[in-house]
Every structure is written in structure tokens, then in C-alpha cells.
Amino acid sequence: MTYTTNLKGFKNHSKLFASTLAITAVMAAAPVQAQAAVTSDLVIEAQSMETALNQLAQNYDKQIVVYSADAKGMTAQKLEGAYTEKEALGIILKDSGLVFKYVNDRTIAVGSPERLAANYNSDQEVSSFRVAQLATQDDQPIDTVPDSRTDIQTRDTITVTGSRIRRSPYSSPTPTTIIDRTTIEQSGLTQLADIITRLPSISPGTGLGTSTGGTFESGASFLDLRGLGSNRTLTLIDGRRRVPGSRFSAAVDISSIPASMVETVEVITGGASAVYGADAVTGVVNIILKKDFEGLEFNAEGGWPGHGGGADTKRLSLHVGKNFDDDRGNISIGGSYSKQDILMGNQRSFGEQAQGFFVNPDNTGPNDGISDQRRFDNFVFSGFATTGTFYVDGTEYTVNPNLQAKTYGDGPFAPGFFVATAGADRDIDFDLAKYDQLRSGLDTYTGLANLNYEVTDNINFNLSGEYGRTKSEDRFQPLFDSGLTIFRENPLLPDDVAVLMDNSYYYYNYIYVYRTHEDLGVRPTFNNRDTFTISGGLDGELGNDWQWEAFYQYGRNDFSSRTDGQTIQANFLQAVDVITGPDGSPVCRDVAARTAGCLPFNLLGPSMNSQASKDYFQYSSRTEVRTTQTVAGTSANGPLFSMPA
Q1: Are 620 and 563 in contact (CB under 8 A)?
Q2: Do the beta carbons of residue 449 and residue 464 sit within 8 Å?
Q3: How would you class 311 by CB atoms within 10 Å of its CB: exposed for 0-12, middle for 13-18, buried for 19 or more?
Q4: pTM
Q5: Each residue of 16-34: pLDDT tens digit?
Q6: Is 511 exposed, middle or buried (0-12, 13-18, 19+ CB in 10 A)?
Q7: In this structure, what DSSP letter does residue 351 have?
Q8: pLDDT at 253 over 80
Q9: Are the C-beta atoms of 163 and 154 separated by less than 8 Å?
Q10: Mean pLDDT of the chain
């Protein structure tokens, strides 16, 4: 858990690691009980101090508060063997200069001696916090956290997401889960949504792996707490609402927020609607961006799958910051680019062939002990062959590449309208596995700028601007039709089909054709989103432990979408209704359609249709939406009176 702290206008961070993801903050007023000397077998490698302490907290089922300003850049000693928690802390913190203090029977604070002395009252001297001493002595009760009114200049003030009230981090009213910068960096993922949805409280929601198939939401990432819908989850950026990224709700699209620019993510799953309103029924996700950065940071990452192609990832980011005017101000600028390639099902072994449960041909009845369904691998749709499927005298036919009518029946099980497995005509059947998309492709471009300045000791000014652009690509399977009518007089009718119709038991003047129009190609969707936000504000102290804030924010989201391969159905029906023209050549039956440019389209047989015939009924659909948001707010908080103990 990370608590953002303000000290003379700048930010520090303290981190609370716990053995569970959803953490209810612990009151510091409870006296510390004697700790049982429980021994645990441990293997903790030498690594960053924060990560090592996180592992230790999980082993002993304790909460450990780590002040990252004190532990930043430190490496913990390797720990291996059977130790009590106090012995383990002593080894991990050895020679680090850090000390620890039991706040209560569930919580341990770790930081510099000065930090712990400033934040926790105790009758002991600071030297008694030393690890070597504390690891061998009995625990002492701890008093309540000191009243900030008596020590406002020396103690950090803490604001917790989900409340405007400043409080001790141990008395937060709601359970809070934190994803810190280290976790984000070590995840190896380029998309922030992929990192956040690893939490059990976050449902898959809308993301690159769930919004495929040519929808308006494809390429976007909307968070969904508890699976109750993204419109019931409030997403904040630096504690403020942002312009919606959806056409259909106020959900915020986080696909344009690069993971490399995020400091922490705070997730609240209870009681948030009392503070934020009805759109936070399931909770709040607060994404805190990096600020007050000094120096230069460049990252380049790439990822390639070990099996098959697709879903290659690339990420570049640059972050530059500098303090000025004797550290009263800070300016930082950052930019990032990330790319993730589209992933199709047949690029993975599990998606190379379709699998499904269908009627078991071996089943003879309810009492034969044979399952009425069985799994079939590598099936295809015979009823929608790419060269057309039709019925004559109750028999299913299709047209093979030689324009000869063929029957099914040479597969491992009886043919049907929907499926058939391997057979002589398999290559012309519709194979869904070829077009099944697992993940969208996405390109992201982002720029961030922040300015913070301490105008006076009690007034701070902040100004920030953000721009993000995402470009996504999705591919949807080819169009298919059922029950298209072809009359016997159609001159494009293959000779074998004409003979079948003429020699049928019931003379067929027309047939119904079921077809997957593979020759028309896939239907790709390209979604572009441009998001711009600028905000500025002032905050400060009024004295007597009162603080105030005022801000203004403007945001805009421009969405554009194009889907190719769409069909004007009326024009398509005119193109497949073909007769012999006055000069003996095939023409569209409708004279007005011929005048408008209609050219014959053949439904039976492999594609022999010209691009000109397709252009008559195909088009690209386009959608453009602009959403703007203006937010202004002011607040003040502080103590009004004290209740008697």
C-alpha cells in the first residue's frame, strides 16, 4: 500500500506490503502484544529491500510499512534458514542503517531511526530502535500516533485515496490494494491494464484480449471491479476524474497511459461510493503518475513469443526532470511509444484447429451407456462452404474447385449442416480457426509534462498536460449468408449443378445457397483515439492543521473508427441475381441496378469475381465521436473540534 505524502509541496512515498492483496488498514492506537517466537523456513534471495520485505511479510502473515524514501536503492541481505520474524528482519536489514518497530501485533514499520522517531511516540531513545538491540529484546507497548497539530512541521501529512481527510495510514476506512512501481517494472508487460487485471478483484473487463472482433471498444482498456461492469468502476488519474474514453459510458480508457509513467496504482473495493458517488459502486482505481522527477530515465524493452508469431511487444520511454530555484520547483517531461502486434488463433498450437462438442454418431439411445455428445477436433463448417453449399432432394452438396458438384460423407462422422471433419472437400469448407482473433494489435504514443512550484512556504502551484494516441487493429471473419436464391436460368450456374436440378425428383427451379464469402476478405476495424488533458491548481496550508486545494481541468477525447469490407445487402442481392443479357453475356437482372454499375457475382465455385463486381456492394463504414470534459473544484479540510476521549 502506498500513501502519497506532502511535505513542503513535494511528494514522498511510503509502502505497505501485506500477505494479502486486499488490506484493511490497522489502527495504531492498539497496544503491541508480546510476539510469539514463531520460526519459519525461509529462502529470500539478495534483492531490492522493498521486494525482500514484501516476501518476508507474506511468510509471517504480517504487514510491513516501508518508507521508500529511506529504502530506495538498497539491497537486502540473502536469507536462508529457519528464523523467527525478528531474527529474519535483523539479517535482511543488516548494515542498511534501517530499523524496525512493532506498531501493533500485526504491523511492523521499517525506516530510518529519524523517520520512526518522528512518526511514532515512544519512551525509548532512538538508539533503542537499532536492529541488533530490538531483535533481542522484548516488545514494548506503543502509544497512539501523535496529534499532527502538535508536530505539523516535522511530520508528513498523508492523504489516502477514498477520503479527503488526512489521517494516519493505519486508520484508513477502506481496504486498499497497491501496485507499486517495482511491481510494474518487473512485470515485463507494456499495457497497464494487463498489470492491473492480475489482481483478483479486477475482472477482465474490456481490453486487448476481450474487445476483439471489430467493435467500437476494440483497442480500449476499461477496468471492471468485481465483474459488475466498467460503468460502475470509477477510474481516477492522480485522484481526479478524466474524460471518458467510451462511446457508451463514462468509463476511462487507460490504454493510452504508459506503464513506464506510472508511480503506483491504488485500488479501493469498498465504501468508495460514499465519497465519489454512484459511478464508484464497485470501487475506485486511482492511477498515480510520476511527478517531481529529477534526472534522466530511458527504457527500451521488447518481447517475442517462444511459440509461433504474433503478439510481439516493443516499448520505448524517456523521462527527463529537473529541480530549479533552490529545489522550490520541479519540471519533468516524458514520452513513450509501445507496440503490440495482433495475435490470431492459428498462431498458437491450441488455436490451430477448432474443437467442439457435437452429436455422437455412435449413440443409439438413452440406455446404451454411450454419451450423446462427443468432442471433435479439427472440425470445419460444411454448411457454409467457401464455394457454396446447397441441397437437392435432401442431400447436401457443394462445388469443388473443378466446378463439379460433390457430396459429403467421407469424413470421420456423418455430415451435417454445421460441421464436418477431414474429408476430400475439407479445403473448401469454412475453417473458423483461420480467423479466430485472440488479441488486438495496438500502437500507443504518449507525452506527459508536469510543473510543480512552491510559491511560498504554504502555497504550491501545479500544472500538468498529457496527450495520448492509440491506434488499434482488429480482424473479423469473412461475411457469410444463408438462403441466397439462385434461379435455374442463372448462366453462371455450373453444369453439374444444372444437371442435378434438372434430374431431381422434384424439379428445382431454384436453390438456396449457404456460403462463406472468403473471396471478399476479412473485415478489419481500425480504431484511433486521441486523448488530451490539461490541468492546473493551487494547494497549501491555512494553519491549525487546515489544508486547501483549488484546481481546473479540461479533457478531450477524439474517437474515429473505420471498418472495411462492409456490405450493402440490397446491392449484394442484386449482384447475385443474374440472367443472360441481350448480347448473351451474364448481367444483373435489375435494369436500374445495371445502370448504377451492378456486375454479376457468382456464388458457386471458387472466386472468379472481379473487384469491380465487389465494389458495387462493398463499402467502408466510418464513425467519429468527440467527448469533452471540464472539471473545476476546491476543497478545504482540517479539524473542527475534538471529542472527549
Answers
A1: yes
A2: yes
A3: buried
A4: 0.64
A5: 333 222 222 322 333 333 3
A6: buried
A7: G
A8: yes
A9: no
A10: 77
